Amino acid sequence: MTGDGATGPAQLRSSRWYEGDGLRAFSHRARTRQLGYLPEEHLGKPVIAVLNTWSDINPCHSHLRDRAQAVKRGVWQAGGFPLEFPVATLSETFQKPTPMLYRNLLAMEAEELLRSYPVDGAVLLGGCDKTTPALLMGAASADLPAVFVPAGPMLPGHWRDQVLGSGTDMWKYWDDKRAGLIGDCEMAELESGLARSAGHCMTMGTASTLTAAAEALGMTMPGASSIPAVDSGHERMAAASGARIVELVRRDLRPSAILTREAYEDAVTTVLALGGSTNAVIHLIAMAGRSGVTLTLDDFDRLARTVPVLANVRPGGRYLMEDFHFAGGLPGLLSRITGLLHLDRPTVGHATLRDQLAGAAVHHDDVIRTADEPLAGEGGIAVLRGNLCPDGAVIKHIAAEPHLLTHTGPAVVFDDYKTLQATINDPGLGITEDSVLVLRNSGPLGGPGMPEYGMLPIPDHLLKQGVRDMVRISDARMSGTSYGACVLHVAPESYVGGPLALVRTGDPVTLDVPARTLRLDVPEAELDRRRAELQAPPARYGRGYGALYQEQITQADTGCDFRFLAAPGQVPEPYAG
C-alpha cells in the first residue's frame, strides 16, 4: 500500500513481530530486552533500519559511522526506534576486479534484509559509486518507506598552487609523468594532496552523478547530494533524514509512489544537465527496472537532444562539487530547467517537486550556467548505434576533444586489459594519434563485471608529443572522473560474440557523434566469415557468487541487473508468528 494514510501501532509492519501473546512475540520482546532496550523505547514505534555501508577499507564512507548516529538521533526525536545494520561496502578504490561485479549482491542484501527483519522503513547510507544504485534498487524491490543519505563529496585537493579534483587530476598528472613533464617527487606530493578528507570524489564523477540522480528522483532531503562530507550541514541533513523517515512510515509513503516513470525521466534530465557520468546510464536503467519502469538508451538519447549542460564542474568543466554546492547545489540547477521537469510528482521531502524547488536560487552563474549560456547546448552523453554496437554504446562527448567527435582511423586491437597494459608502448604496434584503440573482453561477462578500463592509456611516445586524447572503443565502463573520446558500453559485448569480437587491427573504424553512429568499415561478407570462425570462450567461474553472476547478468543496454532480480512478480511477506 502507498499513500498518505495514517499508520498507527496496530498497522506497523514491525508489530507482527512484537505484538500479541504468542511464543514468538514473547521471544522477540525478550531478545530485544537482551539488547538493552526498555519496552517503552520501541513497542508501538516505527522501527527504522539504518543500512550503513561504512567500513575501514572505504575512504569515501569513513565518516558514515558518525552519520549513522546522527540519523538515529533524528529517528529518536521523531518518535521512532532506529536499528543500524551493516551491509556490504563497495569501495571503488580497492575492490577488484570491480565493485560493479557486486552491485547486485548489495542490492539483494538490502532487499532481503529489509524484508526479513521487523522494520517499517529504512535510511540508506551510501555514496561511493555502486552503493547508491545498489541501495536504491534493493529499497525499490522491498518497497518499504526509505530515505537515502548521500555520503557527500570530499574536500577539494591541493598541490602547490593547483586545486585538484580526485580522479580527473589523477589521470592528468599520471599522463604528465609518463610524458616526462613531472617526476617522482611531484607525484609523492600529489599522492598526499589529491584526497584530503572523507567523502566521495568531488568531481562530477559517478558518485556525484548518482547521488544527484537520487536527489532528482526524490529519495533524499532537498539539497542533500552536494553537501561536503565533512561540513556540519552534512550531519544536520543526516539527522533530518532520520526524522523524515518516521514521518514517511506514518504516512505509508513508499518508493513505489516516488520512483515513477516521470521521476526517472527527471533523473536522466538531471544527469544530462550535470554533464554527468556515463555510468549513470547503466545504473538508472537497472534502478528503473526494479521500479517496474522501462528505461532505455533511446530515452537518454531523446532527452539529451533537449537538455543543455549547465554544471561547469570537472571533468567536463572547471569547478568542483564544493563550488557547485555553494552556488546553489542541485535545487539551484533544477530551478533553471523547470520547463523540462515533471514538477507535480512527490518526493520524500515535499508533497511535490514544485514545492521542493520553491525558493531555490543560483548564487554563481559561472558554476551553474543559465540556459542562455550553457556549458554545452545539449546533454553531455550521446548514444551511438551502428554495426559495431547494434544494441548501443555511449560516449561522454562533452569531455572529449571536439576534433575527434567525427573521426575515421585504423583499429589497434587488444584482447584484454592486461595485454594492453603490457604492450601499449610497443613501437611495433605502429600506433599514431589517428589510430582507434579497441579493447574487448571487458564487458559484463568478459571483464568480468565490466571494469572501468574504458579510458585506455595513450602510448608514452604520443604523450611526449603532446597528444592527450584519442578515439578509444571498448565494452568496458570508465570512471566518471575520466575524460576523452572514449566509446563505452558497446553492446552486445565481445565475450558473447558481439561485433567488437570481429574487429582486427588495421580495420577502419568511423566514429560520428553528430550522426550518433559507430561503424566498422568492413564488408558484411567478411564479417560473416569472421563470425563463423568465432569460438565461445570458457566460463570465468566454476562456482560461487561468480557462477551466479555469469548465469544471471544482463548486458549493458539493459542495466546489468540479474535476471531473477529484475523479473516481475510478487515476494510474500515472511510469517513472523
Automatic annotation (TrEMBL):
Residues 366-560 form the Dihydroxy-acid/6-phosphogluconate dehydratase C-terminal domain. Keywords: 2Fe-2S, Amino-acid biosynthesis, Branched-chain amino acid biosynthesis, Iron, Iron-sulfur, Lyase, Metal-binding. The keyword Iron applies. GO terms for biological process: branched-chain amino acid biosynthetic process. GO terms for molecular function: 2 iron, 2 sulfur cluster binding; hydro-lyase activity; metal ion binding. The keyword Lyase applies. InterPro entries: Dihydro-acid_dehy_C (IPR042096), DiOHA_6PGluconate_deHydtase_CS (IPR020558), ILV_EDD_C (IPR056740), ILV_EDD_N (IPR000581), IlvD/EDD_N (IPR037237), Sugar_Degrad_Dehydratases (IPR052352). It comes from the Bacteria. Its EC number is 4.2.1.162. SUPFAM superfamilies: IlvD/EDD N-terminal domain-like, LeuD/IlvD-like. Residues 45-355 form the Dihydroxy-acid/6-phosphogluconate dehydratase N-terminal domain. Belongs to the IlvD/Edd family. PANTHER family: DIHYDROXY-ACID DEHYDRATASE (PTHR43183:SF2), HYPOTHETICAL DIHYDROXYACID DEHYDRATASE (EUROFUNG)-RELATED (PTHR43183). NCBIfam families: PRK06131.1, PRK13016.1, PRK13017.1. This is 6-deoxy-6-sulfo-D-gluconate dehydratase. It comes from Actinacidiphila cocklensis.
